[in-house]
Amino acid sequence: MRGQEVKESSAPNLFCYPAQSNFSGRKYPLSYVKGIQSQQLYPACEHRGRWFVLLDAACFVSCSPLDLSQYPADFVPISFYKMFGFPTGLGALLVRNEAAEVLRKTYFGGGTAAAYLVAENYFVPKPNVVSRFEDGTISFLDIISLHHGFETLQKLTGSMLNIQLHTFGLARYTYIVLSCLRHSNGKPVAQIHCDNDFQNIAEQGAILNFNLLDCYGRTVGYSQVDKMASLFNIHIRTGCFCNTGACQHYLAISNQNVKSNLHAGHICGDNIDLIEGRPTGSIRVSFGYMSSFEDCQNFLRFVVNCFVDKPLILDQKRLTKLKSAEPMESAASYDLASTPNGQLGHQKGQTISPSPERIAPSEDTVSKEEKNNGSSHTLTNLFIYPVKSCASVEVTEWPLGPQGLLYDRLWMVVNENGVCLSQKREPKLCLIRPIICLASNTLQLQVSGMEPVTVPLETSLANSDLRTSQSKVCGDRVQTVDCGKEVSTWLSEFLGKPCRLIRQRPDFLRDMKFGREKAENFGPTALSLVNEAQFLLINRASMSFLQEHIANSENEGTWHDMEQLIQRFRANLVISGQEAFAEDDWSHLTVGDTQFQVIGRCGRCQMIGVDQKSAARTQEPLRSLSECRSGKVTFGVYLAHQSARNTTAVPVLSVGARVIPRISESSDKP
Predict the structure, then answer these.
(1) Distance (Å, whole) CA 215 – CA 356
(2) CA 188 to CA 184: how far, in whole Å?
(3) Which residues pair with 284 in a beta bridge?
(4) Does the fold of domain 368-380+515-663 match that of domain 2-154?
(5) Using CB atoms within 10 A as the burial measure, which of 164, 196, 256, 522 is most buried?
(6) How far is CA 328 from CA 94, 167, 168, 318, in A?
(7) Residue 180 appears among annotated catalytic residues
(8) 356 cis-preceded (ω within 30 degrees of 0)
């Protein structure tokens, strides 16, 4: 019995906790370190043995000083990326010498062994703790740069204490103003996830976590906010931030909700931000030593311009209360009087005012019979995009292949690391005009000011000179073949960086994942290098509604050219119709004699802000699309081809063909 007691009294125990929550920015008392080690706090006070403390300081040390002589945690993981912004992927585990002796490894790797035998279970680790635990070659080039990081940080800021005061002041200012914003009906603009009012620098870090709400109190999806923020050059983080526990706590997501969300198709890191109106994650704004007061104002102005029902109201009572409460620690002071009622949304060229006379078409005022009037729909345009993210080829008649329209998105441009380039990062791609010549079996690429370059349409796998490779499209690994040095040189010269043209291997099959649960009664749906589905359809009636909304909002640019606006949405099928967004409720449709199933709605991103003629970026039409859809930023629907059984005929789509839709029995209203 006594031996058992001695064993229990010497058993090592580990207590882990974060110095600061990466979700809400809440700081936890550093006094816990000594309290646990001295076994004065729970659970150490109720369990025998030696207690060690792991203090996760990765988030904390980015903006706060940490004195390990005062708070002698045994293990302290930190992130240098969070401190400097460079280098990425480099951190450290600080280990107290007294604690190192209890660490054991169940395996060993290169550089960690003093001696070992191959034929016998014999291994002696190196005596130094660093040598024992750093397997393989460390990232020594990145480690060298750390010296410059610390040196630069010291020169720019003077001390971590200065950084803490500066960033807390910015976070407090932003919190106060954001929490006081109200829609025209007095409803709050944001639900902020925190445990305090940003009064105590010892309790709150420079992180603001929230969800935006519309004037009816409904949550605005974080994916929509993220897409809009990118138009204003504002970087935010969205989701659950790898902190499921905090996400469940602040958003009131039960365990059953998590399981139900997975069943509904939501996984960590995707863009499914709302399920049955409930958020699956939130929005996080983090401040660093390079953040400025102007950044705060730009962010708040963005929220007001894009998500507040005008006229803006500031909750003066709350504002006065928060302004009068002095922080418990001295912090950088920012003038809250600089945000009078409505000023945030009144800068020239920045205001977005919903037009009261323009009301989105009511789903209840149009009967399903009227929407389903097949005679009102006609295929007006047909586009293929041979090279992903490059210009379209408009045709009047075109055959279908096994993966969609024949030769649609079979090629893509990649950088020297094999990563796909798109117009999000390389808008100049839209200036590359592909030309398909079936007679000569070639694909020609043209751009103004350069001689064209040609590659073959078909690739023979028997060619021994083929260079095969792997790339990724929307998380899917795809097998490709390289299209040669000549086109690589041509593309590299035009884009000003090393890149190559690759083609999907003819024998590689990529299965559609998007909307798979809807694709009933037919087998796997093969995809080319498209993002989600075989076809994308848009409705001219919907486009006309969006065009009018942009004009009424008096935003930048002229939007009288319907055809140029259509080009931005990069659809395969463009149809005429009578009712805007009627296509959202379709489950199936027939174009001529060819049958399709509607797989789902197309979520839009900042790529529709690229002018397809000039490659210039604009904030429209994404801003107005966000407004007129009153929620999800979707436009157009994805389709999958339903092949006719027992036939070898190749389907052909023709402009002018009649389009007959079928309404979904239970439509998911936007």
Answers:
(1) 14
(2) 10
(3) 209, 237
(4) no
(5) 164
(6) 31, 15, 12, 19
(7) no
(8) no
Q: What is the pTM for the complete model shown?
A: 0.72
Closest residue by Cα to residue 392 from 500, 498, 499, 538: 538
- In the structure encoding, which two tokens stand for residue 372, read together? 């389903």
Q: Is 376 helix (H, G, I), strand (E, B) or coil?
A: helix
Catalytic residue among 16, 45, 242, 268: 242
Model confidence over 329-376: pLDDT tens digits? Answer: 544 555 554 554 444 544 433 332 222 233 333 334 334 444 444 446
121, two tokens: 């279970």
What does the pLDDT average to over 268-291? 92
Residue of 228 and 208 predicted with greater confidence = 208
Q: List, edge to edge, every strand of the sheet that includes 634-642.
A: 393-395, 378-384, 573-576, 535-539, 634-642, 594-603, 586-591, 659-663
Look at residue 341 in the predicted model and tell me its pLDDT: 43
The most confident of the ranges 84-88, 476-480, 594-598 is 594-598
Q: What is the CATH number of domain 2-154?
A: 3.40.640.10
Q: What residues does each domain of the chain span? A: 2-154, 160-345, 368-380+515-663, 406-510
Average pLDDT over residues 242-249: 95
Query: Which residue spans within 306-377 are E strands per DSSP?
Result: 313-314
Domain 368-380+515-663 has CATH 2.60.40: no
Sort strands 282-286 and 237-239 into parallel, antiparallel or unpaired. Answer: antiparallel
